[in-house]
Amino acid sequence: MGASIVILVILALIALFVVVKGIRVVPQQHAFVLERLGRFHAILGPGLNIIFPLIDRVSYRFDLRETPIDVQKQVCITKDNTQIAIDGVLYLQITDPKAAAYGTTNPTMSMIQLAQTILRADVGKRALDEVLSQRAELNATVVQELDRAAVTWGLKVLRYEIRDITPPADVIRAMELQITAEREKRATIATSEGAKQQAINISEGERQQAINRADGAQQAQVLRAQGEAQAILLVAKATAESLKVVGDSLKDESARQAMAMRVAEAFIAQWGAIAKASNVMIVPADMGDLSRMVGTAFRMTEGIKTSMNKQAGG
Question: How many angstroms separate the CA atoms of 124 and 222, rounded?
């Protein structure tokens, strides 16, 4: 009785061992490599899997998700013999668990070493300025070369990103001086261009101002001349009209006598004005004879009368 119980207990323990060791649950996006008697047997996918204990063994467990891996900083020599330190990040994904398990002893380390080697070789083909300005080209070159070798290792290289490029301290100082010089150069060019444009604008403004003034002066002269011509024409017309009125009025005898009297008064007034304007003047010998002066004025009117009669008779 006691022996049978012991046997049952041993069998139960063996069954429990078989159940525990024979069941494998694989998480999503993972893969287990199963070996049977030391040889590759199968790839266990996500979910519940049954294996045979003692003869089956899970040798490798892989995460099939994209995995970022740090590529340690290394010193590279550029084409112009400048030492720079470069580090980056490599993004890998396992696509073939069997190749990843048996293609290399450490696929991750193999990819890191190969990435550093490819990067050193590519940096050696470029000058420092090219390395600093062509990160995208460097990244693409590393990805392309790694992807060729990664096929045999069951890996897929998704991306490689250079994280930091550190030139020597003296090179950094020289670059800072160069940047300062370039900025000062651009500032000087911008200032000269601004002064040039300002001078052009000022000259154009002065030119346009001179043209406007000349046009204004020309138009003013034309308008002034037109105004003066119109004024002369109006004065001439007014004079002609007044003379015509005077001539028509002189046809009457009483008007001619009034005209003669008016001429005499004007004659006398003009002589008086001459005397007031100057202390010294030359006068006719008979200036003192007022009657003779008046007679002279009347003879002038008689002459006007005679000419008018002739014109009327003609």
Answer: 82
Torsion, Cα of 74, 75, 77, 78 (10° steps): 60
Residue whose tokens read 């002893």: 105
Give 94: exposed, middle or buried? Use CB within 10 Å, 0-12, 13-18, 19+: buried
30 torsion bin: left (phi>0), alpha (psi -120 to 50), beta (else): beta
Q: Mind listing the pLDDT tens digit for each residue in 123-133?
A: 999 998 888 88
311 vs 309: CA distance, rounded Å: 5
pLDDT tens digit string along 266-285? 666 666 666 566 555 555 55
| Tokens standing for residue 309 | 């009669």
Local structure of 45: helix, strand or coil: coil
Burial class (CB in 10 A: 0-12, 13-18, 19+), 294: middle
CA dihedral 47, 49, 54, 58 (to 10 degrees): -40
Q: Which residues contact 148 (CB under 8 A, 6 or more apart)?
A: none
H/E segment holding residue 232:
helix 169-249
